[in-house]
Amino acid sequence: MLNGKPHVVMSVMHRTPGRRLGFVQTVARNLENNMSTAIKFKSTDNVDFCQTTMCNLEFSYIDGSDYHFINPTTFDDVAIPASVIGDDARWLVEGVQYTVLNVDGQPVSVQMPLSIDLKVVEASDGLKGDSATSATKPVKLENGLVVNVPLFIKKADVVKIRTEDASYVSRA
Q1: Predicted pLDDT at 132
Q2: What is the pTM of this model?
Q3: What is the DSSP letter of 104?
Q4: Which distant-in-sequence residues (6+ apart) come within 8 Å of 59 by Cβ?
Q5: CATH 2.130.10.10 given to domain 115-171
Q6: Across the strands, what pairs with 123?
Q7: CA-to-CA distance for 140 and 152, rounded, in angstroms?
Q8: Which tens digits make up the pLDDT trace of 35-55?
Q9: What ranges make up the beta strands (E) of the chain?
Q10: Which residues, listed in sequence order, are joined to residue 25 by a DSSP beta bridge?
Q11: Residue 57: what pLDDT?
Q12: Could you give the C-alpha distances from 20 to 26, 78, 94, in angstroms and in order?
């Protein structure tokens, strides 16, 4: 906890400059607004630690401004506000498990998988003879995202998309 808000430490470096006292320099990300800041801690500073837990939840449905997940072991319904998920909501697919970070029993972040399988709902036909180069065409996926894929991808194909940069990986 830093200034009353939960943070996750992204990197840590211990420094001892010359004859002065050593300190720890960290980069911490605020879990409420995803802003990263560099923070120096002296040996005399006190830090409050949060009680955190990680759990795997399966996405179920959207209800207004809440996203509902099911715990696959206890079958409990967990409602996570849209503000926690943010722009990553486009990667939520029904039936897929996601890792949720809880701080003091409250969900604060949902970790997206590295890649996700999505169905192509709109795709134009590739032109014959365009396969000599690595030509691509835009297609629309079931989540509404438009990505460039190779010409051989057709409507109703399932493709693997990297969630980090929304790029095509392979046909699933």
Answers
A1: 57
A2: 0.73
A3: T
A4: 67, 68, 69, 92, 93, 94, 95, 96, 97, 98
A5: no
A6: 139
A7: 15
A8: 888 989 888 888 888 888 999
A9: 7-15, 23-30, 36-42, 52-63, 66-70, 77-81, 97-103, 106-111, 115-123, 136-141, 146-150, 158-162, 167-171
A10: 13, 40
A11: 95
A12: 18, 50, 55
Q: Give the per-residue pLDDT at 34.
A: 75
Q: Which contacts of 64-67 are long-range, i.e. CB under 8 A and separated by 24 or more positions?
A: 67/92
| CA dist., res. 164 & res. 145, Å (int) | 13
The CATH homologous superfamily to which domain 52-111 belongs is Nucleic acid-binding proteins (2.40.50.140)
Tell me the per-residue pLDDT of 110-164, one tens digit each, with 9 for 90 and over: 889 999 999 999 988 766 655 556 788 899 999 889 999 988 888 889 999 999 8
Domain boundaries, the chain: 7-42, 52-111, 115-171
- How far is it, in rounded angstroms, from Cα 155 to Cα 43? 60
